[in-house]
TrEMBL record:
<dbReference type="GO" id="GO:0030975">
    <property type="term" value="F:thiamine binding"/>
</dbReference>
<dbReference type="GO" id="GO:0015888">
    <property type="term" value="P:thiamine transport"/>
</dbReference>
<dbReference type="Pfam" id="PF13343">
    <property type="entry name" value="SBP_bac_6"/>
</dbReference>
<keyword id="KW-0732">Signal</keyword>
<protein>
    <submittedName>
        <fullName>Iron(III) transport system substrate-binding protein</fullName>
    </submittedName>
</protein>
<dbReference type="InterPro" id="IPR026045">
    <property type="entry name" value="Ferric-bd"/>
</dbReference>
<dbReference type="GO" id="GO:0030288">
    <property type="term" value="C:outer membrane-bounded periplasmic space"/>
</dbReference>
<dbReference type="GO" id="GO:0030976">
    <property type="term" value="F:thiamine pyrophosphate binding"/>
</dbReference>
Amino acid sequence: MGRQLIIICLISSILLVALMGCASEEEAKQLHIYAGLYEDHAIKAIEAFEKETGIKVKYTRLSAGEILQRLQDEKDHPRASIWFGGPVDTFIQAKQEGLLTPYISPNRQYIDAIFKDDEGYWTGIYAGPIAIVSNRLWLQQNGLTVPKSWEELLQSKYRWMIAMPNPNTSGTGYTILATIIQLYGEDEGFEYLQQLHQQIGWYTTSGSTSGRLVGTGDMGVAILFAQDAVKFFKEGYNQIVISFPMEGTGYEIGAVAIIKDGPEIEAAQKFVDWVLTKQAQELGKQVGNYHLLTNREAISPMEAFPLSELNIVDYDHEWAGINRQRILEHWKRQVEIK
């Protein structure tokens, strides 16, 4: 009887190990992603990754702020393993809250230090500046020239005709807040934001939607990333005109990161390795996405705006990420509810 029990235990152990191996193998063949970039870009990248690796991907498209909220809500039981795209300020807050896990990909060697976290919690995959985007016809009808400063947006003719992403949900919106605060300082920055709030006719959930509203003529002006406006112009919204505030503007670093305790760590690492390659980064322009690329060997689209040619404020992404929650709470109290 004792011998039979030992044999049964051995067989059970072997079966358990086999089942664990199957589960691990199955895990390596699938990947769940939260995507914060354009859906067409996400699909293009995912399809190429699936073809190259055989790993099947399921994704959910959300704004960066919404992804961060998901990670906070799912902290004890993460449902996804990769955060793909969106301004790095939100990634930095996620790192501070213990929601990401570090990974030093061998392909990080092709990414300059300014575009990656020293500890490997996130790595930049694209970049782009904040711009003022206007509808040329609307400007002409209202006797206005193309706005080229933050101060111009406070003129009475712009009242209720400016669209801006909501910083509570949109990483773009928060980048705008952080840009103004780092340009003017907190006190003067919030004074400006209070005045700008009186001009806003539409706060959009996502960053790019504000640009489309300008393209359709529903809004006269919007504040968003320049590359998003280029995309809309190329799609046929040819009244769009792009300008940059002479006082200075901020910029995003769009990143990728592995979610802490995500269900597919091996597949997640493979995705990070892949998305940092020259070939992966150059896929975006095939579907009309005109970011600056972070891989030194990748060729950025000719439509991208080089940061070196613009008046870029001394934008501190680390500060913006660490202080994101505090800044948003201040904005809600002093601006949004008034």
